[in-house]
Design brief:
alpha/beta; six-stranded mixed sheet; Alpha-D-Glucose-1,6-Bisphosphate, Chain A, domain 3; single chain; 36% helix; 14 helices; TATA-Binding Protein
Length: 449
């Protein structure tokens, strides 16, 4: 199979099985990753039907590169990160396509220090080795593969961090993904009554695609209301994102969920959140005694910054929630149990916690097609115009412009030939005005660049 450069993305390698990637590519990933990692390697996979054969080929590549491999079996992506630390591995590979359809698969790579292999941090090197066939000769001493009983290790790791929560009633939509293999056992051990939805991890994702959009989790919202549950949580396919539903059936964006979860942290300190996040998160953080800091969108950036600063928590509007207590990992199962702990401890409904948070009118993330070769120049042009118009701007990730009426964020997509815009206004009547301004600036910049 000819290797296409487009499968090497910002944070992982991903494509359609037997179209973009197959076992020969998996073997090459093992050989290439084997050249940059030291020591033994952990390998996990999600529930996709192509996963088992891809893992075998990947392990063949790693062992031919001279590495011993610990095969963790089917697990969540955050569990795989934990497995790397638990077994003191030099790195790891998770075979997953996260929230993509069932015919997709991919490879997320990380090093022993927790660093994700991503754009600017090793991905280009992996890509070039594979495309150019620059894999070197197999090691003189081949490694061995050991299958380990990891699921029980991970379950104990999570359970040990929480006290029993008898009387708490919640629902979980597993998106037919990896979380269904461990979360029910965890809840049982903690005394939580769990209503399970879409818990058939056969790799077909029959309930809905493994992306917990508001449309996909409509059944979860209905169940929480109808059965008068304390809250609901939806996991994506590999359980590195948790989407919460309160007792009134309202879906929480990641920044609002983070604002609530700050109450569960015993230690004050820095919190890091992406530039898409609402001003309400900053205001709640300051009110609760935390030091808020904005940062770039994307797991590789947020995870790195949380670890670098020793932050107590990080979060993205996309529902990745990072915990300093977990070496900065974005473990959705841990996030769900932190939320359960808050409700059990305070005896206050999630809806009341949510209602304490200021609410500002916002747009969804608006997407505009723009060629890769133009998008950064377009952003630069827009930044200049906004400054000329008197807005206070920062260029941390694209351009974010602050005015009396609210803010506009316009940034280039990390993974697609697109420009994305988000807007938050202080008043509803200002939202459309700011949107019209942003769209006009995008249109003018694309015409002149």
């Amino acid at each position: 199979m000819k290797v296409s450069p487009h499968i090497f993305r910002a944070y992982d390698i991903r494509g359609v099985y037997r179209v973009d990637l197959d076992e020969s590519l998996a073997y090459s990933v093992g050989r290439a990753f084997g050249k940059i990692v030291t020591g033994k390697v952990v390998v996990g996979r999600d529930v996709r039907r192509s996963g088992e054969s891809l893992v075998k080929a990947l392990c063949d590549g790693l062992t031919d590169a001279g590495h011993d491999v610990l095969n963790l079996g089917v697990c969540t992506t955050p569990a795989c990160y934990f497995g790397g630390r638990f077994y003191r591995a030099g790195g790891g590979v998770m075979v997953t396509a996260s929230h993509n359809p069932p015919d997709w698969n991919g490879f997320k790579m990380f090093l022993g220090d927790g660093e994700t292999v991503s754009q600017g941090a090793g991905m280009e090197k992996i890509r070039d080795m594979i495309i150019n066939g620059d894999l070197g000769s197999p090691a003189k001493e081949k490694g061995v593969v050991e299958k380990v009983d990891f699921q029980s290790v991970y379950i104990q790791h999570i359970v040990s961090r929480f006290s029993p929560m008898y009387g708490l009633r919640m629902a979980a939509d597993f998106s037919d993904g990896s979380a269904s293999l461990c979360f029910p056992q965890i809840c049982e051990k903690l005394g939580i009554t769990l209503r399970q939805l879409n818990n058939n991890p056969d790799g077909y994702f029959r309930g809905h695609m493994p992306e917990p959009t508001e449309e996909n989790i409509s059944e979860l919202k209905q169940v929480v209301i109808a059965e008068k549950l304390d809250f609901g949580v939806a996991f994506d396919g590999d359980a590195d994102r948790a989407v919460f539903v309160d007792d009134m059936g309202r879906v929480l964006q990641g920044d609002i969920a983070m604002a609530v979860l700050l109450k569960t942290l015993d230690k004050k300190g820095i919190i890091v959140y992406d530039v898409n996040s609402s001003t309400a998160l900053k205001e709640m953080a300051e009110k609760l005694g935390f030091t808020p800091m904005e940062w770039k969108v994307g797991r590789a950036f947020l995870h790195r910054k949380v670890r670098e600063l020793g932050a107590v928590m990080g979060g993205e509007k996309s529902n990745h929630l990072y915990f300093g207590e977990l070496e900065g990992d974005d473990d959705a199962i841990y996030a769900a149990l932190k939320m359960a702990t808050l409700l059990h401890r305070t005896k206050t409904s999630l809806s009341k916690h949510v209602d304490e948070i200021p609410k500002y009118p916002t747009t969804p993330i608006l997407v505009y097609d723009c060629p890769d070769e133009k998008k950064f120049a377009v952003i630069e042009k827009i930044s200049e115009r906004l400054s000329q118009m008197g807005f206070k701007t920062n260029n941390l990730d694209g351009v974010k412009a602050y005015g009396e009426e609210g803010w506009i964020l316009i940034r280039a997509s990390n993974t697609m030939p697109q420009i994305k815009m988000s807007i938050e206004a202080k008043k509803a009547e200002s939202l459309n005005m700011l949107r019209q301004l942003g769209e006009r600036l995008i249109r003018e910049a694309m015409e002149t660049v």
